[in-house]
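Worked example 2:
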Amino acid sequence: MKGREERSIDYLSLSRTVAHALRHQPARYGLQLDEEGWVSVEELLHALRQRRASWRHLREEDLEIMMASAEKQRYELRAGKIRALYGHSLPGRLPKPEATPPEILYHGTSPEALPTIRRQGLKPMRRQYVHLSADLATASQVGKRHTNQPVVLVVRAREANEHGVRFYRGNDQVWLADAIPPAFIRFP
């Protein structure tokens, strides 16, 4: 096996593949997630090693480096298992413990989505939860995935929570919620 310093791993590509495996298509990788979204690190490594020749010597420490070098905390590694923290499009809903949200959260979107959001509020769409950002910059960055001119909506999260909308912590920057009615959204 090549020495550590001789190996070159594209951690962004690795992170994208891990996201696909843990959030969207585990069966495609031969993985079976448990009811909370966990899978053994060894099973994931085995699946990844089969995908690319350059990954045939992947180790748990490579996953740790991938996680540490990422802009966002997307994964959790514990006791020989790994899971994605949020963003799942799998059928069935992974349980999350409820949490009291901050006063305000943000949601980045496209101008084209505004009429529907004004009528229906924010819905999970193809995901399990509505994704909200803890700050304007992150919400704007998320909105730029959909358009060059994103719109950032202000969600009165604490008020919505007091009226029965459930919230869940994704990580330090991402909050998850059930559907948010338009009454709790400030539109531009």
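Helices lie at 11-24, 41-51, 60-69, 114-120, 136-143, 157-162. The two ends are 57 Å apart (CA to CA).
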